Amino acid sequence: MKHSQRTHSLDAWRESHAKEVLSTISNTDDPFYNDINLVKRYLHEEKDSYNIRNHDIINVIYDRLNALNPELVIDVGCGHNFNKEKVQNLIGFDAMPYPKADMCCTILQAPFEENSADAIIAFSSMQMLNEEYRLECYERIISWVKPNGLMEMRTNPLGGSNISGGPNPQLRDSMESINGYTDRFNLEYIVEPFYDSLCDITDIRAFSKKIGITSDDIFKERFKSRVAKGGLWARHARQIYWTWRKPF
Fold this sequence. Notes:
Elements: H1 3-22, H2 36-42, H3 46-51, H4 55-66, E1 73-76, E2 90-94, E3 103-104, E4 117-123, H5 131-144, E5 145-155, H6 175-184, E6 188-195, H7 204-210, H8 216-222, H9 224-227, E7 240-245
Parallel strand pairs: 1-2, 1-4, 2-3, 4-5
Antiparallel strand pairs: 5-7, 6-7
């Protein structure tokens, strides 16, 4: 089968799968669900969503959140809810019906009250939204955070609808756009935006060692699709992490 045929077949399967997933969601009354391509991009496999993390950075974030002794931490777009076992009193929700998520809803549907959360986690959960909808989502999640509360953020500069334009043609995901949101919503940096250290990894075995996978059997199981292509994984862009505080 030619590459173009394989790509078309995969795209057709992904669209069919996305429609099937949408049929299981009881409340799709949100603009998010109207874009099938957006839904396709937010569906991902468990092993992939876990292994793209930089564990050194994530563990520092866990320590910072737990030091708050929080009554409520909201994980926005939690996926498979990996953070729940690491952070005290965390509730994770996702627009996709992942079995381990505490709730299936969008940001605009989520039932949290204003000033109710000690902290927010939003890891790559808004990077593919169009600018108008994204700003509305930012306003909503910021409203949930208590004064002096934290927002642990992550984005991928090339995580949008196309590799050159990014999700925001006006701002894109960049240091400049993040600074723009900071000023727009009158937020403060606890940790200024920085790039992770996993850029341009081409040897997945070396990366696996870095995160503690030393068994060939585990390696092959977790990365079987990539191993089948030669065991190579090219990251084209670093992810950006930062931490906001909502002022009093």
